[in-house]
Amino acid sequence: MDLNSTLMTIGEHAVSLGDALLFAGALALLLLVATVVLAYRAMKGRGHEQDETARRTMELEFRLAELSGALQSFAAQSQGNTVHLQRTLDEKLEAVGQRVGLGLTEQAQRTTQSLNVLNERLAVIDAAQRNITSLSTEMVGLKDILSNKQSRGAFGQGRMEAIVRDGLHAKAYAFQPTLSNGTRPDCLISLPDTEMKLVIDAKFPLEAHSAWRESQDEAPRREAGARLRADMAKHVKDISEKYLLAGETQDTAIMFVPSESVYADLHEHFEDVVQKAHRARVILASPNVLMLIVQTMQAIVKDVAMRDQAHVIKQEVTRLLEDVTRLKERSIDLRRHFDMANGDLEKLGVTADKISKRGVKIESLDLEEPAKAAAVEGNPRPRLISGT
User: Fold this and answer.
1) Which among 226, 274, 282 has a CA at the least distance from the CA of 250?
2) Residues near 361 by Cβ (< 8 Å), separated by ≥ 6?
3) Which residues contact 144 (CB under 8 A, 6 or more apart)?
4) Exposure check for the chain: N or C terminus, fewer CB within 10 A?
5) Which domain holds residue 325?
6) Cβ-based burial of 244 (10 A; exposed 0-12, middle 13-18, buried ≥19)
7) Same structural domain for residues 165 and 290?
8) How far is the C-alpha of 284 from the C-alpha of 332, rounded, in Å?
9) Pair 167, 304 in one domain
């Protein structure tokens, strides 16, 4: 094919095959140059990338080294913090343990004290329980005593004797003495200014009163009341016939009732029995009333004793007045002696003043004229001795 043959027309220019081949060769060359340039650039870019990669690798290694050092430092610091934290925790735990131990010790002490107080209270309660048990036993024994006539009489006798012993001198009473008719009252009390004795009887009939107190129905209670009246009347009669002896005992005797409640029941529900006893010159006395009677007798005995000793007191007062009079006279004499001594002391003071004044004159050589001095003192005229 001819290279100059026209292949195409572009505007007014005709394009031949040679031009086309030339253009294609130029284009291929251009593409080759462009490829070489791109390859070179690519190779140069890869070198830069390798350098950048190496640089980045070095930076990464440096940063890894720094990070490793930081990690090691952090690990060391963490280990130190862990040790410090462990030590702090140990100290805190030890302090908490000590506080807990101290609190437990104090709580144990308080618990021990509370237990001791509780034991003491339990001991008191135990003692009270024993006292209650003992009191119950004594009450049962007292009931047994009061249910027996002889034991009840001994009980009343004991209470009466205790009251009399506490209030009177041993010479003022006698227990279970024998009277002229052979009877033996429970107590005789001696009164001042008379030979007649006061009788006290302690054998009170308690069976009928107990039956009357324990009766719930009307009929048994009425029967027990009638029995009590009969027993009281018989006992009052026995006292008045056995113990009221003319010229030997007082015309009034005392019936001792060993219980305040029985005494109150008699005055409240059996006033007729009390009035009959008074008319028979028998006075009922409870423990409190008997104590009052004994204290009254004690006051009477003291008054009589004071009256008996009144003349002795009068004599002693008279002697005391005489001693006071003598004391007054002797004090007057002593005062007179003191006055005389004061006068003598005043004279001694005047003389001492004169002597003092003369001493002052002698000390100052202010001597009086010899003639005047001789005339005043009554001494001979002194001679004058010449000093030449």
Assistant:
1) 282
2) 367
3) 151
4) C
5) 316-377
6) middle
7) yes
8) 66
9) yes
Residue 194: phi and psi, rounded to 5, are -155, 150
Length in residues, the chain: 388
Q: What is the pLDDT of residues 344-363, one digit of tens each?
A: 778 888 888 888 888 787 87
Q: Let me know if residue 198 belongs to a domain.
A: yes
Rounded distance between C-alpha atoms, residue 382 and residue 370, angstroms: 7
Q: Return the exposure string of 304-316: e unless at least 16 CB atoms fall within 10 Å of the residue's CB, then b.
A: eeeeeeeeeeeee
Around Cβ 165, how many Cβ atoms within 10 Å?
13
Show which of 308, 337, 352 is a domain's final residue.
308
pLDDT in tens, 197-239: 899 998 887 777 777 888 778 888 888 888 888 888 898 999 9
Residue 196 burial by CB count (10 A; 0-12/13-18/19+): exposed, middle or buried?
middle
Give pTM, 2 decimals.
0.44
Q: Which two tokens stand for residue 305?
A: 């004793």
Alpha helices in the chain (DSSP H): 17-147, 149-167, 207-214, 218-243, 260-269, 271-279, 287-308, 310-364, 370-377
Q: How would you write 130-154 as a 3-class SS string?
A: HHHHHHHHHHHHHHHHHHCHHHHHH
- For residue 59, tell me if it sits in a domain: no
